[in-house]
Amino acid sequence: MTATLLAPGTVEVDVRLVPDDLRRALRRDARAGLSARPKTMPPVWFYDDRGCELYEEITRTREYYPFRTERDLLRRVAGEIAEAAGATVLVELGSGTSEKTRLLLDAMAAGRAGLVGYLPFDVADGTMRAAAQAVADDMGIGVHAVVGDFHEHLDEIPDVDAPRLVAFLGSTIGNFTRDQRRNFLEEVARMLGPSDRFLLATDLVKPVERLVAAYDDAAGVTAAFNLNLLSVLNRELAADFDPDRFVHRAVWDAENRWIEMRLEATEDMAISISALDLSVEFTAGEQMRTEISTKFTFDQVRRDLSQAGMRVTGVWSDPAGDYLLTLARPK
Ligand code: AVJ
User: Fold this and answer.
1) Whose CA is nearest to atom 9 of ligand 1?
2) What pTM does this model have?
3) Is 142 within 8 Å of 65 (Cβ atoms)?
4) Closest by alpha carbon to 8, among 110, 98, 143?
5) Sign (positive/negative) of CA torsion 82, 88, 92, 93?
6) Distance between CA 305 and CA 331 in Å, rounded?
7) Which of 41, 52, 55 to mutate to test the pocket of ligand 1 (most atoms within 8 A of CB)?
8) What is the mean pLDDT of the chain?
9) How far is CA 67 from each of CA 124, 134, 146, 170, 197, rounded to the nearest angstrom?
10) pLDDT tens digit string along 10-43?
């Protein structure tokens, strides 16, 4: 169904994911993940208010280069991307509040095609509503936001009668498993019309010591970000994790070309998760995986996009070759 573009300055928010859905999803992921061998928890649960604060802090650490590398790259090439895409509506998957969004919006507004609409999509309702209103006010365009989950609600994004640039920044695609990535890219390809384009941000493979340092900064901010997950489980599921009895680990998995973040138990312990009526054992040295962050090569990106039904029309990288922005169109 083709939705009409909203009048300038108006904001509409479609809520496809209510707090109860999130609570149910956390219970499902915790029951499955804490009973699995090895234990795992998906990274989406890092991002409570404290987690968002800690992530912002991570982006300011010396070791964590992806955020500023992407921002500086966008500052340099957003205009070229806007011209190459020729879109007048920006659809942003995982929209957050970042200035990176503004770089793209400003470039599109200044471009030949102009900017007539912004469609942010994110799991975090509050953050996105505030950002949506600010963009509508500052840029005088219609903003139609969707609160949803990447893996379930992409087809809820309004299909407007204007060329759309669908952007997925932050290299968040690196946190998806292979299956999640394939399904996500196929879903994106399905939603693209002939005049739509897809902009994908990916962090590239580089010397291992730089990768591990980026996920284990000397100041311990990433460690705090990782350990905060235990506080989320304690608060949301009445669990009794003691974060002082776990340590943060960041490990490079060369075979899968991803960084794995883990929480390692420092001693044997039994954890009760009252909300799930569940008790789980940890042995000393046992590690629970809390995030993968896949690092790409251009060939991998081109192959993944091609397998999903898209072909590359433009690439931009920073001088050091640390990061990649890829523009694609439906085949
Ligand atoms: C922005 C979600 C992609 O995986 O690099 C930062 C999150 N995890 N430090 C990433 C993160 C550990 C980040 N993403």
Assistant:
1) 215
2) 0.95
3) no
4) 143
5) negative
6) 10
7) 55
8) 95
9) 19, 22, 24, 7, 23
10) 999 999 988 888 999 999 999 999 999 999 999 9
Q: Going along 89-157, which residue ranges are E strands?
A: 89-93, 117-122, 142-147
**Ligand 1 pocket, residues with Cβ under 6 angstroms:** 58, 66, 170-172, 174-175, 215, 222, 291, 293
Per-residue confidence at 330, pLDDT binned at 50, 70, 90?
very high
Nearest CA to ligand 1 atom 10: 293
| Measured distance CA(295)–CA(204) in Å, rounded | 5
| Centroid of ligand 1 to alpha carbon of 143 (angstroms) | 27
Structure tokens at 124: 């975090």
The radius of gyration of the chain's CA atoms, rounded to the nearest angstrom, is 20
How far is Cα 6 from Cα 118, in angstroms, rounded to an integer?
9
Report CA(10)–ligand 1 centroid distance (Å): 32
Indicate the residue type of 152: E
* pLDDT band for position 7 (cuts 50, 70, 90): confident
Write the DSSP symbol of residue 101: H
**81 Cβ neighbours under 8 A, 6+ residues apart:** 74, 104, 107, 165, 199, 314, 316, 325, 327
Helix-, strand-, coil-residue percentages of the chain, each rounded to 5: 40, 30, 30
**240 is written with which tokens?**
């009794």
Q: Which two tokens stand for residue 161?
A: 């009668």
Beta bridge partners of 266: none
Q: Whose alpha carbon is nearest atom 13 of ligand 1? A: 172
How many whole angstroms from 326 Cα to the centroid of ligand 1? 19
